[in-house]
Design brief:
This protein is of the alpha/beta class. The chain has six helices and eight strands. It has one domain: 3-Layer(aba) Sandwich (Collagenase (Catalytic Domain)), CATH 3.40.390. The structure holds zinc ion (2 copies).
Length: about 210
């Protein structure tokens, strides 16, 4: 546990998110965890087209195929059979037994996706759910209610009650309400544990490599 966290493997499973958008997601994660994540490897995992997959099984497959710290982004619905509290919802989850987080794009698409703006919103949501799950990889915990970060947006670890809204409402209120910056509580946790610092943007760009 907590080994190799400075290097994150992002694995795309499916094709809803284009490769260049995947790069954008990688850059967003790198920026939010600047100084902690130093390198991101992007890869594509070819799988048979499935409508849904067991979330825990997917984390175990990814853990076996990739080393260390992994974020899987799948088009398939993430299912969870048990009441494992670590699977906060089937929008995304994190297996407490390894360093693998998974995100499903399935419920993040706007009702219509005919314009660039709607597609951008879809990518933005995927990034925000990814930030939340990668945050769990670093030991950050959910904020039971909404917690603001500097700039006024919600901290990516804000969770809220999914049952209150249903998925569509939850995505609009909580996921869209989140920003890219963590709140002071999360930042001081990261600083205490990992020594948070800020290298130059140029360095960030260079360390984003495709595998
Ligand atoms: Zn969570
Ligand atoms: Zn926070």
């Amino acid at each position: 546990m907590l080994n190799n966290l400075s290097r994150l493997n992002i694995v795309r499973i499916g094709s809803y998110i284009t490769y260049s958008s995947l790069q954008k997601i990688g850059a967003g994660i790198l920026n939010a965890f600047r100084g902690i994540i130093r390198e991101i490897n992007l890869s594509h995992y070819d799988s048979p087209v499935v409508d849904s997959i067991d979330a825990q099984l997917l984390t175990m497959i990814l853990d076996e195929q990739y080393e260390g710290h992994v974020l899987g982004i799948t088009d398939a619905d993430l299912k969870t059979e048990d009441e494992d509290e670590f699977y906060n919802s089937i929008l995304g989850g994190k297996n407490p037994r390894n360093d693998v987080a998974v995100v499903s794009t399935k419920k993040l698409a706007p009702r219509q996706m005919t314009s660039d703006r709607q597609y951008d919103l879809f990518v933005d949501r995927t990034l925000k759910v990814a930030l939340h799950e990668v945050g769990h990889n670093f030991g950050l915990i959910d904020h039971a209610s909404y917690q603001s970060a500097r700039g006024g947006r919600l901290c990516p670890m804000s969770r809220g009650e999914i049952n209150k809204f249903g998925y569509r409402g939850y995505v609009k209120v909580v996921v869209d309400g989140r920003g890219m910056d963590f709140c002071d509580d999360c930042l001081s946790f990261l600083e205490n544990i990992y020594g948070f610092n800020q290298p130059s943007p140029q360095l960030l760009k260079d360390s984003l490599v495709a595998a």
